[in-house]
Amino acid sequence: MPSKKTISKAKSQESKSEPKTGGFSVPMFDVKGAKAGTVALPKEIFGAKINDNLMAQAVRVYLANQRLGTASVKSRGEINASTKKIYRQKGTGRARHGAKSAPIFVHGGVAMGPKPHDFSLKLPKKMKKAALLSALSAKLKDGEIKVLSGYEKIEPKTKSMDKALKNIYKDGKRNVLLITYKSENELDSLKRASRNLKDVKIINADLLNTYEVIRSRELLFLKSSINALKNTFAGVEK
Fold first, then answer.
1. Residue 41 belongs to a domain with what CATH number?
2. Residues 138, 20 share a domain
3. Does 212 map to a domain?
4. How many C-beta neighbours within 10 Å does residue 158 have?
5. Both 22 and 139 in a single domain?
6. Per-residue pLDDT reduced to its tens digit, 75-93
7. Both 148 and 215 in a single domain?
8. Is there a single domain that holds both residue 135 and residue 106?
9. The whole model's pTM is what?
10. Is residue 238 domain-resident?
């Protein structure tokens, strides 16, 4: 029979592994910023194994794919200048030179300069999905997820959204990612109320990615966007 010390140690380890929010329930807030109960999150999305290396790889691939790689300069062969030798090879006492398009001259070509380059990287769909679920699970474990109720019909004014968020984040530190579930026209009021807040970014649930999840201090889900997230990312693997 295990001792009391062993049992208490096991219980403490179990409590450490549980999210700060208490299982898979997170607080829900209304338009006034007041707490309006809790919402249960799907375990298949927010209960995934947390893989730090995979998340780091997904972020690296995402950032690499944002690079345009369109910087370009002209080499000496592309400069619109005469190719005539500027002076004779010997007898002048000066250094030997060829055409004025050489990199050593002003308005000459650039030696080993940048050319259009593809920086994009690829990540398999299963790894990309696993990284996202890992990031969401980490956010839940750290207690950095909240649900908003009734915000679909919020007054389309910046001060309305700002006031609601100030009631939730009394310390003023926000930097939140607002996850929606409908097209722009259907949530026009909410988007108009949030678009001028520099510490609020809006993204649809089906476009959610690991980088945006990690870079945000907290995630704000609309109550209905959780189902959209489940329908998009909790499908059966092929």
1. 3.40.1370.10
2. yes
3. yes
4. 15
5. yes
6. 999 999 999 999 999 999 9
7. yes
8. no
9. 0.77
10. no
Q: What is the per-residue DSSP string for the chain? A: ---HHHHHHHHHHHHHHS-TTSTTEEEEE-TTS-EEEEEEPPHHHHTSPP-HHHHHHHHHHHHHHH---------TTTS-S--S-SS-SSSSSS-----TTSTTSTT-PPTT------------HHHHHHHHHHHHHHHHHTT-EEEE-SGGG--SSHHHHHHHHHHH-TTS---EEEEE-S-TTTTHHHHHHHTT-TTEEEEEGGG--HHHHHHSSEEEEETTHHHHHHHHHSSPP-
Q: What is the pLDDT of residues 145-173, one digit of tens each?
A: 999 988 888 888 999 899 888 888 887 77
Domain limits at 104? Answer: 68-118
pLDDT tens-digit series, residues 57-72 = 999 999 999 999 999 9
The structure tokens 């000066």 sit at 94
